[in-house]
Every structure is written in structure tokens, then in C-alpha cells.
């Protein structure tokens, strides 16, 4: 068995995921990237549109690629923000609005759960006896999953679905068997935030909040966000161990506490 350690990931083409892939590569992990565009840090790239259900994806190609590799973890970094504003009177616009919610649910939840269920046997084979950390599955979640800003409720619903799926996973597997991690990166200046500002009605509360945060330089740089996330995911710490099945707030270095 090779001593190379592999990370499987999505969302590495842009934003936080791109910076995360860079740090992972800098730390000598090998990367299998599932996505629509390469980032340049991957050792294996498998073209994958997360809008598609698993039966329409190259899952067989992925399974073949995983054979014999030591998998340290899986990171679902991909995500989309659905359309936020809708006119009550325009039927065509309403239709596009709900189509966008369905697509966000597919990318932010279903595809993540489907991929994890299919690759679990490879991750759980414990073929990496030398690893300093328990194998993990992680996804980039959001505070909106538990406490959405006004306007982000439906996006939050897609993130809640995935968070609940991770909670269920954490009940199926003990922390020292498979660590199940949900990470809120913080508010980070990426295409996702810029698109909300540019494409949503300017009177939406969240648009005003983002604009103000940019003005006050309160949005995090994706590189810093990725470093926080890397340190959390790849360090065998009490914080990581306590986060099994919970929501970790990477910007605050704390676990979300329900009131
Ligand atoms: N930015 C924030 O403030 C913030 C806050 C809380 C949570 N998050 C979460 O953090 C994650 C990363 O966000 P980000 O801000 O870095 O977003 P981003 O810059 O918009 O990047 C999104 C990533 O998801 C990928 N993706 C989207 N749809 C896909 C599809 N159908 N098939 C394959 N890949 C797809 C994109 O790939 P393509 O290049 O192929 O589109 C891209 O790599 C998301 O889950 C987001 O919900 C972000």
C-alpha cells in the first residue's frame, strides 16, 4: 500500500474551495477533484456536474480511481446560492425562482449525500494505518443552516438538510471511526457574495448587509478562511473531536450552540 494520502473534494475550482485545495496540496496530500473546472492543484480530475443525480455521474470512474488509495478524507466544498428575490405577480419569474431552489437543494444537499454514501466503503477501509487523524467527511455548511439572515431562509434550508444528514452520519459512525464535520467558513468575499450583491433586488436585507460588510472590510479573505478550515480539518484537536456531528464556526473557532 502506498503511503500517499488522498483527499477527495468538490468545489475546488473557485472561492474558498480553491484556496483550500491549494493548502491541502502544499501539505503534500494528493487530490481527487470532482468538478466542472480544474483548479490546477488536483492529481486526478473527474468532470462532475453536481446538478446531476448520482446515476448520471461518473461514479464508476471515481470508484476505479479510489481503488488501492489511502483516503484521508472527503471535503464537499461546492455550493450554490439560489435566486433570492421573486416577483409575486410574474409567473415565469416565479417558476425560475423555484427551479433555482430545487437546483440549490440538489447541489447543496442531495449530491453531497449521494457521493458520500457511494464512497464510504473506500474511506472506511482504514487502509491508512499511518494517518495521524481519523478519516473524515466534511462539508462547507453555513450559519444560515441554523440561524439564517433575513432573505437567506431557503438557501439555509438546503444547508440545514445537509447538516441534518451529517448529524445522522455522526450517529451511524463513532467519532474515532469516521469523523463527520460541518464547517461554517464565516462571511467570505467570493463570487457567491458578489453574485448576491449584483443579481438580487437592492432592497433585500442581505444585500444591504453584504454591501455594508464590504464597506467596513468585514468580509474574510478566502485564503484566510481556507487556512482556518484546513487547520481545523487536518489537526487532531479536542475541538475537531468535539465537532463530530455538530456545526463548527471556523471564523470564531467555536462550535455552534443551540439556544
Ligand atoms: N462565501 C461565504 O461567505 C460563505 C458563507 C457560508 C458558507 N459558504 C459555503 O461555502 C462553500 C463555498 O462557497 P464560496 O463562497 O467559495 O462559493 P463560490 O466561490 O461561488 O464557489 C462555489 C464552488 O462550488 C462549485 N459548484 C457549484 N455548482 C456546481 C455544480 N453544479 N457542479 C460542480 N461544482 C459546482 C463551483 O464550481 P464551478 O466553478 O464549476 O461553478 C465552485 O467551485 C459553499 O458551500 C457555500 O455555501 C460560503
What report would you give on this structure?
The chain is of the alpha/beta class. It has one domain: 3-Layer(aba) Sandwich (Rossmann fold), CATH 3.40.50.720. The protein has helices at 15-26, 59-66, 91-124, 153-172, 191-199, 205-215, 222-234, 238-242; strands spanning 5-10, 30-35, 44-47, 70-76, 136-140, 179-184, 247-249, 254-255. Strands 3-2-1-4-5-6-7-8 form an 8-stranded mixed beta sheet, with helices on both faces. Helix 1 crosses helix 7 and helix 3 packs parallel to helix 4 (153-172). The chain is globular. It starts with a strand and ends with a strand. The mean pLDDT is 94. Bound molecules: NADP nicotinamide-adenine-dinucleotide phosphate.
Instruction: Give the integer mean of the pLDDT values.
Output: 94
- Radius of gyration (CA) equals 18 Å
Strand order of the largest sheet: 3-2-1-4-5-6-7-8
Helix tally equals 8
Termini separation comes to 47 Å
Helix content: 40-55%
Q: Which structural class matches the secondary elements?
A: alpha/beta
Biggest β-sheet: count, sense, barrel?
8 strands, mixed
What's the CATH topology label?
Rossmann fold
CATH superfamily: NAD(P)-binding Rossmann-like Domain
Shape: globular
Q: What is the compact description of this entry?
A:
The protein contains eight helices and eight strands; from the N terminus they run βαββαβαβαβααααββ. The protein is of the alpha/beta class and 259 residues long.
Amino acid at each position: 500500500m502506498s503511503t500517499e494520502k488522498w483527499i477527495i473534494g468538490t468545489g475546488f475550482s473557485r472561492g474558498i474551495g480553491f484556496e483550500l485545495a491549494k493548502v491541502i496540496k502544499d501539505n503534500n496530500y494528493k487530490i481527487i477533484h470532482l468538478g466542472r473546472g480544474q483548479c490546477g492543484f488536483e492529481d486526478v480530475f473527474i468532470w462532475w456536474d453536481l446538478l446531476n443525480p448520482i446515476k448520471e455521474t461518473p461514479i464508476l470512474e471515481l470508484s476505479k480511481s479510489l481503488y488501492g488509495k489511502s483516503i484521508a478524507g472527503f471535503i464537499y466544498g461546492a455550493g450554490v446560492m439560489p435566486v433570492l428575490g421573486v416577483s409575486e405577480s410574474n409567473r415565469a419569474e416565479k417558476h425560475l425562482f423555484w427551479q433555482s431552489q430545487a437546483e440549490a437543494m440538489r447541489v447543496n444537499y442531495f449530491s453531497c449525500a449521494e457521493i458520500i454514501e457511494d464512497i464510504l466503503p473506500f474511506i472506511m477501509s482504514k487502509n491508512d494505518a499511518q494517518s495521524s487523524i481519523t478519516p473524515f467527511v466534511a462539508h462547507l455548511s453555513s450559519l444560515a443552516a441554523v440561524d439564517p439572515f433575513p432573505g437567506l431562509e431557503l438557501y439555509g434550508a438546503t444547508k440545514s438538510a445537509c447538516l441534518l444528514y451529517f448529524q445522522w452520519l455522526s450517529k451511524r459512525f463513532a467519532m474515532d471511526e469516521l469523523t463527520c464535520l460541518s464547517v461554517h467558513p464565516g462571511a467570505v468575499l467570493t463570487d457567491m457574495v458578489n453574485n448576491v450583491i449584483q443579481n438580487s433586488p437592492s432592497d433585500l436585507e442581505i444585500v444591504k448587509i453584504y454591501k455594508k460588510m464590504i464597506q467596513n472590510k468585514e468580509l474574510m479573505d478566502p485564503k484566510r478562511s481556507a487556512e482556518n478550515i484546513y487547520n481545523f480539518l487536518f489537526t487532531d484537536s479536542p475541538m475537531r473531536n468535539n465537532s463530530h456531528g455538530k456545526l463548527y464556526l471556523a471564523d470564531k473557532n467555536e462550535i455552534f450552540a443551540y439556544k
